[in-house]
Amino acid sequence: MPFEQYLTIPSVVELESKDKEEAIRELALISCKALDVRKQKAIIDEIMKREESSSTFIGQGIAIPQARGPIKEEFAIVVGRTRDGIKYDAARNALAHVIVLLISQDDADNEKQVQILSDIAAFFKSDYVNNEIMSFGKSVDIKDIIDEMKNGPEEKGRKDTTKKVDNPVITTATVLAREVKASAIMVFADSTRDNDFLDQFKAKPKLIIVTSNKTRFEMIKDKRIAGILQAPSIPTERTGQMKIGTLLALSRNLIGRDDTVVCISGNIRNGHFDTIVTINVSSEYEFFFTSAKNILPPDVEPEVLERIIGLAGEIAVEGREGKPVGTIFVLGDTNSVNAYIRQLIINPFRGYSEAERNIMDPGLDETIKEFAGIDGAFIVTGDGVVLSAGSYLRPQQQSGDETTPLPGGYGARHAAAAGITACTNSLAITISESTGTVTIFKSGIIMMSISKPVMREKGQVQKYL
Predict the structure, then answer these.
(1) CB 152: neighbour CB atoms within 10 A?
(2) CATH match for 302-464 among 3.40.1700.10, 3.40.47.10, 3.10.20.90, 3.90.650.10
(3) Of the candidates 438, 379, 441, which has an alpha carbon nearest to the alpha carbon of residue 406?
(4) Which end of the chain is more exposed for a tag (fewer CB within 10 A), N or C?
(5) 3 — phi, psi (to 5°)?
(6) What does DSSP assign to residue 6?
(7) DSSP letters along 303-348, please?
(8) Residue 229, class by beta-carbon neighbours within 10 Å (0-12 exposed, 13-18 middle, 19+ buried)?
(9) Domain extents for the chain?
């Protein structure tokens, strides 16, 4: 992982503190001592100031407090854990069990800092990493965990000579890919819990992995993998998986309009693959190309779209305070979009630095989810900076333009999203308050709708909250 080189202390610190401020102070003092930093109070004060403006709790018992200071290295990271958990001013009174402190140089690159924060969040949210860190009674070294994820855990004193049985679903899919001359095989990897399935694939056709945990595959650096796409952490139906995977693969130019793709999917709860679907992109997803040659507006980065789709899925399932929430994200072409909006409330993002309001920063998740309950839209630049929330959209139809009527059941929120994308070169992602459906608009038409997943078991809901 890119952040590995910045671990000041590789081993996880056993936190003795029982409250948030003391825990942050404890980690900061340990970090400053290791870095030989004398201005400890200034760093601690900046961390607490950041926490006062917005909690850095990112869910799943993890918090990533941060500050800038006079350190020699560009970044410094220290990790602490606590069995009992610490109240961290999080939604639903969630407790923080793992605290990852990031200290950056005063002049550290903002984009690099946001990327490191994103990598840290993905790594520590991994089930494997979380289970290892929360295994109390033994010391934990982060670099050892990273090595195991790269090379696979070793069985001490015994070599496994058991011959592995090929997965019949993958065998069938690879044969089918050759017969239909598929340009890619797309695997929805959350359907299985291990990476042994990779052994059945060859160099061609290209292999695309769609997963909610990119860390799982970025570690192994398998040359057969042409691309790793970030799927929402919320489980979706198979059709929803394929829609998301196809859109994200097109946005990164991993597949093209005239390609055929073989998809392998399955049931997350069962933990194995059970579905093969062949997709002819141009015929199955013709609506992706009806209004524009390119899927994404020119100023929108693919990872920002991935991030917003993931957040939209979480908001659709979680809601806020037990109630469903609907909202809009308008992404890209913000110079044009700003001409068609006015603020319903004082803009809560005004006055903060671009680094503090970049949607790629996992520390912004809770803030976004909190403001999702406000009427109006989020306006987001193509590189992920949130310009405003609570923005009222006032799109105007250009003379001579004809708008495509929306299907029945869509309300004012969807009409506003369609309208703003019709008069600007932006994307709009909506969450329906009544159904939880996530809908993506471009050029005034619906590109994709993803139904809210049905959580049949209470434990499932808790896992993804």
Answers:
(1) 13
(2) 3.40.1700.10
(3) 441
(4) C
(5) -80, -10
(6) G
(7) HHHHHHHHHHHHHHHH-BTTB---EEEEES-HHHHGGGEEESS--T
(8) buried
(9) 2-151, 168-288, 302-464
Arch. (CATH architecture) of 2-151:
3-Layer(aba) Sandwich (3.40)
Handedness of CA 226, 232, 233, 236 (dihedral sign): negative
Beta-carbon contacts of residue 359 (< 8 Å; ≥ 6 apart): 304, 307, 308, 311, 368, 380, 384, 385, 386
Secondary element (H or E) of residue 127: helix 127-133
**Token pair recorded at residue 250:** 């097109």
**Residue 250: count of CB within 10 angstroms of its CB:** 21
Give me 109's structure tokens. Answer: 């690159």
DSSP SS3 for 164? coil
The angle that helices 40-53 and 20-35 make with each other, rounded to 10 degrees, is 140
Rounded Cα gap, residues 413 and 328, in angstroms = 7
From residue 414, give the alpha-carbon distance in Å to each of 43, 330, 395, 398, 444.
45, 12, 12, 19, 10
The Cα diameter of the chain in Å comes to 76
Q: What is the full per-residue pLDDT of the chain (465 aa) written as tens digits?
A: 578 889 999 899 999 998 999 999 999 999 999 988 888 888 999 999 888 887 888 888 899 999 998 888 899 999 999 998 998 887 677 889 999 999 999 888 888 888 898 889 888 888 788 888 988 888 888 988 888 776 654 444 444 555 567 789 999 999 999 999 999 999 999 888 778 888 888 878 899 999 888 877 876 677 889 999 988 877 677 888 888 899 899 989 999 888 999 999 987 777 789 899 999 988 877 766 655 567 888 999 999 999 999 899 889 988 877 788 999 999 999 999 999 999 989 999 998 888 889 999 888 888 899 899 999 999 999 999 999 999 999 998 665 555 667 776 788 899 999 999 999 999 999 999 988 899 999 988 888 888 876 554 444 444 444
Q: For 168-288, give the CATH class.
A: alpha beta
